[in-house]
Amino acid sequence: MGFLRVAISGLVAGLMFAQGLVCAVAALVAQGGRISARADILTHFAPFWLAGAVVVAAYALLLAPRPLRTIFLTLGGVGAIAAGSLVLPEYVRPMSPRAPAGAPHQLKLVQFNVWGRNTDLSDTARWIVDQDPDVVVIEEATPAIRDAILQRRAYHVVCGKCQVMIFSKLPTIDSGVVDTPHGLPRPPIARGAYHSASGDFTVVGTHYTWPTKGSLQQQQGQRLAWILAQYPKDAMILAGDFNSTPWSFSRRREDAMFGLERRTRALFSWPAGEVSHERVKVPFPFLPIDQVYAGKAWRTVSVKRGPRLGSDHYPVIVTLARAP
Q: Phi/psi of residue 70, each to 5°?
């Protein structure tokens, strides 16, 4: 029994050392995301590095053999500090005051990547319409989901044959986007302008590529920022699947470039159900990659995540009120 206890203790120590080393190195390399798109990929998993490092630090204080305690505490501490510096800014960043639930001139928006392989379009469309949103921004849109929604409600549609579609109760007074300079690439994008009793406003929807595509995602962000600058921003709403978490340096840079306030704070929206073609299922979402921004003419009433439907994303429901 004594040999078995020693063997188990040694195995646990080895696993904790490997975990601490991986988390510390990953969190430190992720700091290079300030200048490297490749290093920035690691920032998206900062909560994992943080949780793993905290476990190692706890092991060092409670269970680690005394001669090895300093090593484990150093690995856990370095990992926790490096990863925490990535995650913490999202939770402490200042946000504008919220509007009360009964505030006038409210607008309800559903942001949803419905997924190109969604096999439950009927229930997905039914849920969207049942929310009675004023605006719906959909990514990975298809004619099938467009028709399923329109069969249940006569929305006005912007870019009805595009990958990104906007549905609205109000008719569109303007749509389309200006071309970027010299034909530079841009992400899939749709824009609709509307007139309401509380004033005109613009809705922009977009869908970025994955950050693993080199610097393409960062280039898409730069192009989108240029496009947004061509339109009034005070009453603008920007929503989409950015495939980018708030702890990444690319998301922080774009938060500053867009000139809009991101109203989603660490709202985990991916994955919902299956993750890959191998149908690997995850019980909870661990990446907050669906975002909603709004200009200073809007105050936030509520931000919440919708239920699991037929997509690999959860929908995001944001209610805004026109500022006095």
A: -65, -40
Is 2 exposed, middle or buried, given 0-12, 13-18 or 19+ CB atoms closer than 10 A? exposed
Q: Which residues contact 53 (CB under 8 A, 6 or more apart)?
A: 20, 23, 24, 27, 75, 76, 77, 78, 79, 80, 83
* For the chain, counts of helices (H) and of strands (E): 8, 14
Write phi, then psi, for 65 (nearest 5 degrees).
-55, 140
Other C-beta atoms lying within 10 Å of the C-beta of residue 103: 16
Chain-centroid distance of CA 223 in Å reads 19
- Residues in a beta bridge with 293: 238, 262
Asked if 211 contacts 245 with a C-beta cutoff of 8 angstroms, the reply is: no
Q: Determine phi and psi for 28, rounding to 5 degrees.
A: -70, -45
Give pLDDT tens digits for 163-219: 999 999 999 999 999 887 776 678 999 999 999 999 999 999 999 999 998 789 999
How far from chain centre, in Å, is Cα 322? 24
Q: What is the pTM of this model?
A: 0.94
Q: What is the pLDDT of residues 91-100, one digit of tens each?
A: 999 999 999 9
Contact 18, 10 (CB under 8 A): no
CA–CA separation, 274 and 45 (whole Å)? 19
